[in-house]
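So, could you explain the following?
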Amino acid sequence: MLVGKIFSRPEKFSIYYRKTLREIELLGLNSLGIVALVSVFIGAVITMQTAYNIENPFIPRYMVGLTARDTMLLEFASTMIALILAGKVGSSISSEIGTMRVTEQIDALEIMGVNSAGYLILPKIIANVFFFPILTILSMVIGVIGGWMVCILLNVITPEDYISGIRYAFIPYYIFYSCVKMMIYAFIISTVPAYHGYYVEGGSLEVGKASTRSVVYCSILILSVDVIITQLLLS
């Protein structure tokens, strides 16, 4: 019902354009740091664990790079980053809208004849669905670089073998698959916290509880949708 209300009565395009650009900065650009930090360590750990667990001498060493690349592309660059963003962006959306609800700012918008749900939530949906796939591609690149840095610093395998594994049997469809997943995750991360914030009742304590619930529900939905999308797009 809330999603229907969001899209039922749109405001002027110019209003949404300005708010969407602002949300891209607040929710997307401000998440670049944590996405980059998490991605570089994920890529490094995947490379180290793969290299240390391949003991069979008949398995070529370039398989370490191949495994790190495909793991980042298929799962970690989308699902893991989505879980991180659910905590950072989701709690921010829920607390922002929840604070506006308990301070009666949303009621004031309704009195002025503004579709408060569309005005507050739709720009966040557009910004996240547009920008989160960019964060996913960035995470893929940084994760692969993180694995390469481990090869140089810790010498788990030679950098040449790692690069050979990255280039071996590359499937571009994996990037499309991860971006589609992230677009769906972005919609979840935008709407679920917005719902909990929009319908919060009480004071600041209830706003905090709503933020916590929104992150938990987002995480459960992301993992559930991950199974469904994988079955649909990779089976």
